[in-house]
From TrEMBL:
GO terms for cellular component: cytosol. This is NADH pyrophosphatase. Keywords: Hydrolase, Magnesium, Metal-binding. One of its GO terms (biological process) is NAD+ catabolic process. The gene is nudC.
């Protein structure tokens, strides 16, 4: 995040990054906070299998991922789940059937910028497996994987790896 150098208020090359969450300008007292971004990840589950996507873009292109994405301004996390599942998978869901599981911090690196996120994990159970029309710009494929066969090295994001470690312990 230290790539920003010029103050957007006074234009001087005096913008300082604190190394964690804010830029400040000693010339004009401008302050810009880099707050945590909200994101959702949905475990679509049928019996003992989980529906995973394979990323078709950076970051982590080619790695497995849970369906989900960033929360838009003025949008609830549950509505984000609904929107993202439709955008990525053309899957219509009833948000009343979403079950919140946990949250974990993560770092999402995009074009050499680290975005700190809080990833909110939800579970959505279905009674039978399905196949969908995927959005190829974001996802290269989807697959049902038995929960015991998830390879943590193939999971895209650290927060999801940590999530699955706990999820497997409490799997029922």
């Amino acid at each position: 995040m230290k790539i920003l150098k010029f103050c957007p208020n006074c234009g001087n090359k005096t913008l300082n990054w604190d190394g964690e969450k804010k830029w400040s300008c000693p010339e004009c007292s401008f302050t810009l906070y880099n707050n945590v971004a909200g994101a959702v990840a949905v475990v679509i589950r049928c019996g003992n299998e989980i529906y995973l996507t394979r990323r078709n873009q950076e970051p982590k292109k080619g790695k497995l991922d849970l369906a989900g994405g960033f929360v838009d301004p003025k949008e609830s996390a549950e509505n984000t789940c609904k929107r993202e599942l439709f955008e990525e998978l053309q899957l219509e869901i009833d948000i009343k059937n979403l079950r919140y599981l946990t949250s974990l911090p993560n770092v999402y690196q995009y074009k050499e910028i680290d975005y700190n996120t809080i990833d909110l994990f939800y579970e959505y159970r279905v009674s039978e497996k399905f196949e969908v029309n995927i959005e190829l710009s974001e996802i290269s494929e989807t697959q049902w994987i038995h929960i015991s066969e998830i390879n943590f090295d193939d999971i895209a994001f650290d927060s999801q790896k940590k999530f699955f470690e706990e999820y497997l312990k409490n799997f029922s």
